[in-house]
Design a protein that fits this description.
With 339 residues, the protein is α/β, with parallel strands linked by helices. Among the domains are: 98 residues, Spore Coat Polysaccharide Biosynthesis Protein SpsA, Chain A (Alpha-Beta Complex); 86 residues, no CATH class. The protein is 48% helix and 16% strand. The strands form two sheets. A five-stranded mixed sheet has the order 3-2-1-4-8. Strands 5, 6, 7 and 9 form a four-stranded mixed sheet that branches. Strand 2, helix 2 and strand 3 form a beta-alpha-beta unit.
Length: 339
């Protein structure tokens, strides 16, 4: 049977690292064919102690911890890849809980030739207590909030542009290279784009499921999507053909609002156009909030969801625009594919 290495980048994940390890331990895939490689970004909390305690209590699951001195996700993935021994690599996250058949279904998809990278869908859950955390989780799984990222909401197996926690054969790294350490976000999307450029397929199977915990506050949500937006432009500079419509709306919306505000002081009619745009946007988000409030029987979503979606759009769009004016200078070398 195929051996599988589950690679996990993490940093200060003492609250969630035991959850993902328990979920991996509960996999239906033969445990003797599994290993877990955790790339720790020099955690300053009790993450390492939590991992050690789990290792001590579950010695029949191979777990190794590797230092990730760069402290970034793509660097952590690459350090974990360097220490992994499996024929199949499965990328996982410290904020996730894969369902018991996640590994077996992913390997089956590879064996059936459905794609070069096979993954599943997220069930996005609140990352904290309270009405706002619930609203953020709902917003992060709605197309108005996150566009056409099908792994967040689809129920249909299909070929897609990207999957977040995919499984792929080790030799794929020799063909297309490893994760791009020039990027501090969007590394999965860029990796999958290179797979598709090389003629491979990305397969999404909604029967492959993982729970994913959203950010618990608007502040943390804003930081997350600021990072996504900022590094998206850097990815597009290297891979301009990867742009999609959902990536255009947030920066276009933010820049449009900024221009309308500027010209409203000079051209009176622009003030009314600005008002129309803001009111239309607000009503659209309130409509989404109302829809989800009825569906989930939670009145707080009427206002919480619009707040969360607006935070996603404005943070992502503003960071994308801001990245035009900055040129990150710390650019490590990415492993190239073999010739």
């Amino acid at each position: 049977m195929t051996s599988v290495s589950i690679i996990i980048p993490c940093y200060n994940e003492q609250k969630t690292i035991s959850q993902v390890l328990r979920a991996i331990y509960a996999q239906t895939y033969p445990r003797q064919k599994l290993e877990v490689v955790i790339a720790d970004g020099m955690s300053t909390d009790n993450t390492l102690e939590e991992i050690a305690a789990f290792q001590h209590a579950h010695s029949d699951l191979r777990i190794q911890v590797i230092e990730n001195q760069r402290k970034t996700i793509p660097a952590g993935l690459n350090r974990a890849l360097e220490g992994a021994n499996g024929e199949v690599i499965l990328r996982m996250d410290a904020h996730a809980e894969p369902e018991p058949d996640y590994v077996s279904r992913s390997v089956d998809g590879l064996d059936r030739g459905l794609g070069e990278n096979v993954g599943g869908v997220w069930e996005i859950l609140p990352g904290g207590e309270g009405w706002l955390a619930s609203a953020i989780a709902s917003a992060a799984s709605h197309p108005v909030g996150i566009g056409d990222a099908k792994y967040r909401f689809t129920t249909k197996a299909q070929e897609v542009q990207t999957v977040p926690f995919g499984a792929f054969r080790r030799e794929l790294i020799d063909e297309i290279g490893d994760f791009n350490e020039d990027l501090l976000a969007n590394e999965d999307y860029e990796f999958n784009f290179r797979i598709r450029q090389a003629g491979g397929k990305i397969w999404l199977d909604p029967a492959i499921k993982a729970k994913y915990f959203a950010r618990p506050t608007l502040k943390e949500l804003a930081k997350q999507y600021w990072r996504y937006g900022f590094w998206k432009l850097n990815m597009l500079r290297e891979n301009p053909g990867s742009i999609r419509w959902r990536q255009i709306f947030p920066p276009a919306f933010v820049s449009g609002i900024m221009l309308l505000i500027l010209f409203s002081f000079l051209i009176p009619i622009t003030y009314w156009i600005l008002g129309f745009v803001v009111v239309s946007y607000t009503l659209t988000l309130l409509g989404v909030g109302l829809q989800l409030a009825i569906k989930k029987r939670s009145l707080s979503l009427i206002f919480g969801v619009p707040l969360a979606i607006a935070t996603i759009h404005i943070s992502w769009g503003s960071a994308f625009l801001w990245s035009f004016f900055l040129n990150p200078s710390d650019r490590p070398r990415r492993k190239q594919k073999k010739q």
